[in-house]
């Protein structure tokens, strides 16, 4: 499905990919992810989309966003909106779908293959449009979680479905070793 002379672009729906990897019990090593797709073709662009809580002193995602930015990913962020739902629970909203679609449509004339890291069925019309423009589309998500994170209509529309769990050995961070207790000196 991948050809060495393909011009590729990655479109990573950050929150969706994070949720899929977490449901499978592993963390993504984004350096390895980038290297894997550089091996598969000519990587033109690797976009990463995420919403950020701007009003907090520290955001747990900020170190990742900074690292990705400094290591060749095109970061697309926007402030997340906080609100309180009808039950009084604090909720955060920060959908990045429109930004991802606009970037994919703008880049399509210069691509042979788009790789979408999301299982969101809302992207089916994007996949159809890219295909009409002659771009092959691979979708990376998982069917191995409960419930599956990939919308059936998106999986069926894609030219190629890549099971995220099958990439675990290639792009997964090695599990951290538990700290061994120091043996006590016997007297």
From TrEMBL:
Superkingdom of this protein's organism: Bacteria
Residues covered by the NYN domain: 7-165
Record-level Gene Ontology MF annotations: RNA nuclease activity
CDD domains in the record: PIN_LabA
Entry protein name: NYN domain-containing protein
Organism annotation: Paracoccus litorisediminis
Phylogenetic placement of the source organism: Bacteria, Pseudomonadati, Pseudomonadota, Alphaproteobacteria, Rhodobacterales
């Amino acid at each position: 499905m991948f050809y060495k002379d393909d011009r590729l672009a990655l479109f990573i729906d950050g929150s969706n990919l994070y949720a899929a990897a977490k449901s499978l019990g592993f963390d993504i090593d984004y350096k390895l992810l980038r290297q894997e797709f550089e091996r598969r073709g000519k990587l033109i662009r690797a976009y990463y989309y995420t919403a950020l809580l701007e009003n907090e002193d520290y955001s747990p995602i900020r170190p990742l966003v900074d690292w990705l930015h400094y290591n060749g990913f095109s970061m697309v962020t926007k402030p997340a909106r906080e609100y309180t739902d009808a039950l009084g629970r604090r909720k955060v909203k920060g959908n990045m779908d429109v930004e991802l679609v606009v970037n994919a449509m703008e880049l399509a004339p210069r691509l042979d293959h788009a790789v979408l890291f999301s299982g969101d069925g809302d992207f089916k019309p994007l996949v159809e449009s890219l295909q009409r423009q002659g771009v092959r589309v691979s979708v990376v998500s998982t069917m191995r979680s409960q419930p599956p994170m990939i919308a059936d209509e998106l999986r069926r529309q894609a030219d190629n479905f890549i099971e995220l769990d099958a990439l675990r050995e290639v792009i997964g961070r090695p599990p951290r070793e538990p700290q061994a207790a120091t043996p006590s000196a016997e007297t």
